[in-house]
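C-alpha cells for chain A. Residues wanted.
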C-alpha cells in the first residue's frame, strides 16, 4: 500500500524534519511541496523526492525559476490557492508546516483534499480553529496535531473520555534566558535569542520560546484542539525538554509522555513511520529520567505569561490580534528595527489598548474578517509602536 502526501512549508525546520522522516519509508509518494521564497532548496527537494508539483508564493522567485522547474518536468505554481487545481482527489496525508498566520488559508483550502491533516502551524489553530474544525467535520478529514506538546496530549488521551480529564500540563524548556534577568536581556541580539537550549526550530518560534510567548500560544492551541478551559491547563518549566505533556485524570492516574527533543519523533509517529534514528540519543535516556526537574514559571521573569489571564472564554478577535501583534513585533526585532524588550513591552501595552479591546467581544465570521483584523491591527501597531529602553 502506498500513501500520498503534501508538505506545505517544506523548506522550513518542520518541513525538513518531515522529509527526513519520509526518507525512511518507501510507502510515501510526495505529491506537493510548497515554499515562500526558498526556490533553490525546494528544487533540490523536488528532485530528490520525485515531486511533480511545487508551489512558491514569491512572485519574483516564481518568474526566475519557472523554466528550471519546467525543464525538469516539475510544474511550478504561483500561490497557495493553486492547491485545489493540483489535488483533485483526496491524498492520504497533508502536513502544514508554514509559519505564521499565512498558514490559515491553505489549511482551509487543503482539508477537502486530504484524509489526514497534520498541523504544526499553531497560528492557524489559534486564530481559525472554528473554521478548521467545521471543515474537518464536513469533509471527514482526520486531524493530528504535531506540535510536540499537543501530539503528546493527543496520544495520552486516546481512548479516554474527555470528562475524565482533570488537568493538562504543558512543559516548557524556559528558553535561553531562563537564568537571566530581564535587565540583562533588554538589548540582547537575535543571534543569542535564537540560540534555543534544547530545540532546533525556525526563527519566529525560537524568539517566541525565548520569552514564553510560545507557551501562551500553546495553551490557547490546547484549549481549542481539546476543548478545555484555561483553568484546566497549566505550564511547568522543565529545562531538559524530555517530558512533553502530563495529563492528570479524575481517577487519580497521571500519564506522562517522554521523548528526546526532536520533532521527527511526533511527525514520524503521526505518519505511522517506524523511524529509527541514526543517533543513539533517541534511545531511552536514564540520566534524563533521573534528573527530571519541574519549576513553576515566574510571571515577573516572563511577564508575557500574564496574557493567559486575558484569554476570553469563547473565540473572539482577541486571538487574531495577539498573533498579529506578535508576528509583526518579532519580525521587526529580527530586522533590527526594535530591541528585544520592545517585543513584550509593546505587546503587553497594545493588547490592553481601548482601541483593540473593543474587538475582544466580537467574533470573526469567516477568514475575510480575520484578514481585515490583521490589517487593522498592523496599522494600529505601526502608528503606536514604541522603542523601550527599560
Ligand atoms: P520555518 O520558518 O523554519 O519554516 C516556515 C516554512 O513556511 C518555510 O517553508 C517558509 O518558506 C514557509 N513560509 C513562510 N512564510 C510563508 C508565507 N507567507 N507563505 C507561504 N509559505 C510561507 O518555521 P518552522 O518550521 O519552525 O515552524 C513552522 C510552524 O510549525 C510554525 O507555525 C511553528 O510555530 C510550528 N512549530 C514549529 C516547531 C519547530 O520545531 N520548528 C515545533 C512546533 C510547532 P521559506 O523557506 O521560503 O521561508
Ligand atoms: Mg511545542
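Reply:
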Amino acid at each position: 500500500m502506498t500513501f500520498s502526501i503534501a508538505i506545505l512549508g517544506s523548506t522550513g525546520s518542520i518541513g525538513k524534519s518531515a522529509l527526513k522522516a519520509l526518507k525512511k519509508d518507501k510507502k510515501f509518494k510526495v505529491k506537493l511541496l510548497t515554499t515562500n521564497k526558498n526556490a533553490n532548496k525546494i528544487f533540490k527537494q523536488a528532485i530528490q523526492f520525485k515531486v511533480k508539483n511545487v508551489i512558491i508564493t514569491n512572485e519574483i522567485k516564481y518568474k526566475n525559476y519557472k523554466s528550471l522547474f519546467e525543464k525538469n518536468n516539475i510544474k511550478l505554481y504561483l500561490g497557495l490557492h493553486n492547491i485545489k487545481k493540483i489535488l483533485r482527489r483526496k491524498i492520504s496525508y497533508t502536513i502544514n508546516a508554514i509559519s505564521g498566520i499565512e498558514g490559515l488559508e491553505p489549511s482551509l483550502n487543503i482539508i477537502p483534499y486530504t484524509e489526514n491533516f497534520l498541523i504544526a502551524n499553531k497560528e492557524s489553530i489559534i486564530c481559525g480553529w472554528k473554521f478548521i474544525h467545521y471543515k474537518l467535520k464536513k469533509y471527514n478529514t482526520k486531524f493530528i496535531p504535531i506540535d510536540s506538546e499537543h501530539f503528546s496530549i493527543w496520544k495520552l488521551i486516546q481512548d479516554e473520555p474527555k470528562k475524565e480529564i482533570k488537568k493538562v500540563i504543558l512543559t516548557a524548556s524556559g528558553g535561553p534566558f531562563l537564568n537571566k534577568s530581564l535587565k540583562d536581556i533588554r538589548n540582547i541580539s537575535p543571534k543569542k535569542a535564537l540560540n534555543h537550549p534544547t530545540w532546533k526550530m525556525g526563527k519566529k518560534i525560537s524568539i517566541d520560546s525565548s520569552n514564553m510567548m510560545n507557551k501562551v500560544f500553546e495553551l490557547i492551541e490546547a484549549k481549542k484542539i481539546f476543548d478545555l478551559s484555561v483553568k484546566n491547563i497549566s505550564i511547568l518549566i522543565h529545562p531538559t525538554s524530555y517530558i512533553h505533556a502530563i495529563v492528570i485524570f479524575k481517577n487519580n492516574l497521571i500519564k506522562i509522555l517522554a521523548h528526546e527533543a526532536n520533532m521527527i519523533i511526533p511527525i514520524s509517529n503521526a505518519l505511522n513511520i517506524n523511524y529509527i534514528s541514526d543517533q543513539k540519543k533517541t534511545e531511552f535516556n536514564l540520566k534524563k529520567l533521573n534528573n527530571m526537574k519541574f519549576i513553576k514559571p515566574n510571571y515577573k521573569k516572563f511577564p508575557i505569561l500574564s496574557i493567559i489571564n486575558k484569554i476570553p472564554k469563547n473565540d473572539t478577535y482577541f486571538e487574531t490580534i495577539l498573533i498579529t501583534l506578535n508576528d509583526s513585533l518579532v519580525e521587526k526585532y529580527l530586522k533590527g528595527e526594535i530591541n528585544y524588550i520592545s517585543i513584550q513591552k509593546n505587546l503587553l501595552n497594545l493588547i490592553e489598548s481601548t482601541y483593540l479591546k473593543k474587538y475582544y467581544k466580537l467574533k470573526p465570521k469567516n477568514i475575510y474578517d480575520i484578514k481585515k483584523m490583521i490589517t487593522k491591527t498592523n496599522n494600529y501597531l505601526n502608528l503606536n509602536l514604541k522603542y523601550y529602553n527599560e
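DSSP finds 17 helices and eleven strands in the chain. The chain has a mean pLDDT of 95.
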